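// run 5 | inverse folding | seed 20
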C-alpha cells in the first residue's frame, strides 16, 4: 500500500512522507523521529543539530545565484496525533502508518494518517535533499511536541534561528494563506471520591456512545459536531435522575486537541428499574440522534450487560460530577468581530475519566484574544471548583496577531494569482500554530503559513488530497524563486 503512495507525484515529497510514516512519532515520544531527522541531515552533508529541548535544525546554502536573498526558515512539527478506530488493532509506539490511495486521497487504515504535519516535514526534506531546485539560503526548523503542548516551540532559544522569513507549512486548505491563529490553555480538573459497595439487587451495564466524526478541536469546532463526553453525560444525568443509577467508571475522549469520538461508562441499575431504564435510554438516544442527524449520522448508543463492579461512586460525588460536566461549555463560545467567519473563542471538553476513586476532566480552551481565552478558562475553573474539584490552568500559549502588510504575504499572493488564476483566501485560523510562540523570541521575523488540503485531522478519517499536494509543491517552488534580496 505505502509503495503505491511512493509512485505519486511529486515523488520527492511522497517518498519522504512514506519514509517518515515508517517512524513512530507520538507526541512526547519523539526520540526515534528526532534521530531520523538528524541522520537525514547528516546523510545529505548539511549543517544539522538538535537544540536543548529536541528540536532539529538543518541548514542548506542557497542555490547558485540566490546567495543574496533573505534566509528562509521552513518550519513544521515532527509529532503527530495518535487516534484509531475502536475496532482497529494498531500499536502507534511500534508500527508505521499503513497508507492507501482512495481516488484523490491518501488515507490510513483505521488510524490517523500523520499528514498533519508530516506533509510539511516531507516537503521540507524534499527541498533540503534536492540538487536542482532554485532557492535562497534555507534553514529548516523541525519542532517537537506541537500537538500536546507546543513545548518545542516554547523551548526554542532566541539566538538559534538565522532566518528573516518563516514559512510555516502547517495549515490545511490549499487556497488559504494564513496570517494569524488562536492561542490556547489547558484546563485540568481533578477530585477524589469515596467508593461505595454495591447492593445485591442490581445489574451492571456498559453504555457505549460511539460513531462520532471527531476531528480537530480548533479547525472543526464550528461544524456543530457531537461531543461524546457531553452526550454520555446527558444520558447519565437523565438516568441518574429517573432511575438512581450509580456510576462505576467513565472513559471518554482521548487528546485535548481532538473532539471526542467515543465514551464508555459502566453503571449499575436496580433490578426493579431495568426494563424502564432500557426503554428510557432508547428514547433519549433517539432524541439525541435526531438532534444530530445531519452532523453525526453514524452516532450509536449501545447498552450491554457486564459483570458487576465491586464499587461505585458515592452519590454526592456522582451528582457533582454530572452537574459540573453539564455546566461545562463546549463548542464555539464567540465569533471574531474583526474577521468574518473566524471563531474567536471556544472550548473542547476533551477527556472525562472516572475510575478507582479518582476523577479527571481535561479541556482545551482556545481564543485569538488572550483576555477572552483567560476569561472562559476562569469560567470553567469556577464551575469545577464549585463542584469540589481542584483545577490547574497550564500550557498557556499565545496567538499569532495578523499582519496584513507582511512583505512575504505580498509575494505569496502574487505567486498564487499568477499560478492558479485566482486570488487566495487570506485568513486567520482557530487552530494553534507555532508562529505566535516563535514570534515572541523572533519578533522581526516575517511569518506566513500555508499547506496542502488535509481533511479530518486528529481523527482516523484524516486524509490528504493528492492533487492538492501537487498544487502546494508547485506553489512553494515558485515562492522560493522570488524571495526578496537582503
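// decoded
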Amino acid at each position: 500500500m505505502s509503495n503505491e503512495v511512493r509512485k505519486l507525484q511529486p515523488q520527492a515529497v511522497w517518498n519522504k512522507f512514506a519514509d517518515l510514516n515508517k517512524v513512530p512519532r507520538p507526541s512526547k515520544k519523539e526520540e526515534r523521529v528526532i534521530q531520523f531527522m538528524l541522520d537525514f541531515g547528516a546523510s545529505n552533508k548539511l549543517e544539522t543539530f538538535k537544540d536543548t529541548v529536541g528540536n532539529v535544525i538543518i541548514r542548506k546554502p542557497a542555490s547558485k545565484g540566490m546567495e543574496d536573498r533573505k534566509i528562509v526558515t521552513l518550519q513544521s512539527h515532527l509529532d503527530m496525533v495518535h487516534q484509531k478506530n475502536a475496532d482497529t488493532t494498531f500499536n502507534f509506539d511500534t508500527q508505521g502508518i499503513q497508507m492507501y490511495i482512495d481516488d484523490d486521497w491518501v488515507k490510513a487504515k483505521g488510524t490517523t494518517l500523520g499528514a498533519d504535519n508530516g506533509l510539511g516535514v516531507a516537503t521540507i526534506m524534499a527541498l533540503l535533499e534536492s540538487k536542482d531546485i532554485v532557492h535562497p539560503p534555507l534553514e529548516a526548523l523541525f519542532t517537537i511536541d506541537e500537538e500536546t503542548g507546543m513545548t518545542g516551540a516554547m523551548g526554542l532559544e532566541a539566538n538559534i534561528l538565522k532566518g528573516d522569513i518563516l514559512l510555516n507549512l502547517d495549515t490545511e486548505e490549499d487556497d488559504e494563506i494564513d496570517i494569524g491563529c488562536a492561542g490556547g490553555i489547558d484546563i485540568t480538573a481533578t477530585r477524589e471520591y469515596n467508593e461505595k459497595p454495591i447492593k445485591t439487587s442490581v445489574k451492571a451495564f456498559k453504555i457505549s456512545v460511539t460513531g462520532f466524526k471527531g476531528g480537530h478541536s480548533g479547525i472543526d469546532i464550528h461544524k456543530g459536531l457531537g461531543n461524546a463526553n457531553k452526550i454520555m453525560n446527558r444520558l447519565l444525568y437523565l438516568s441518574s435522575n429517573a432511575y438512581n443509577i450509580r456510576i462505576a467508571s467513565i472513559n471518554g475522549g482521548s487528546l485535548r486537541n481532538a473532539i471526542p469520538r467515543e465514551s464508555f461508562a459502566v453503571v449499575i441499575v436496580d433490578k426493579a428499574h431495568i426494563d424502564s431504564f432500557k426503554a428510557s435510554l432508547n428514547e433519549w438516544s433517539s432524541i439525541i440522534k435526531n438532534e444530530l442527524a445531519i452532523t453525526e449520522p453514524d452516532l450509536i448508543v449501545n447498552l450491554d450487560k457486564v459483570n458487576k463492579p465491586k464499587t461505585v461512586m458515592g452519590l454526592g460525588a456522582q451528582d457533582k460530577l454530572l452537574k459540573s460536566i453539564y455546566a461545562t461549555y463546549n463548542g464555539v463560545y464567540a465569533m471574531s468581530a474583526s474577521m468574518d467567519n473566524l471563531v474567536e473563542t471556544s472550548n473542547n471538553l476533551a477527556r472525562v475519566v472516572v475510575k478507582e476513586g479518582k476523577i479527571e476532566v481535561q479541556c482545551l480552551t482556545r481564543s485569538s484574544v488572550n483576555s477572552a481565552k483567560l476569561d472562559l478558562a476562569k469560567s470553567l475553573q469556577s464551575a469545577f471548583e464549585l463542584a469540589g474539584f481542584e483545577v490547574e490552568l497550564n500550557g498557556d500559549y499565545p496567538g499569532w496577531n495578523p499582519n496584513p502588510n507582511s512583505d512575504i504575504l505580498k509575494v505569496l499572493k502574487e505567486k498564487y494569482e499568477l499560478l492558479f488564476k485566482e486570488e487566495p483566501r487570506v485568513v486567520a485560523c482557530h487552530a494553534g500554530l507555532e508562529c505566535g510562540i516563535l514570534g515572541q523570541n523572533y519578533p522581526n521575523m516575517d511569518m506566513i503559513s500555508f499547506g496542502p488540503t488535509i481533511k479530518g485531522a486528529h481523527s482516523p478519517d484524516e486524509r490528504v488530497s493528492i492533487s492538492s499536494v501537487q498544487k502546494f509543491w508547485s506553489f512553494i517552488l515558485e515562492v522560493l524563486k522570488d524571495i526578496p534580496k537582503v
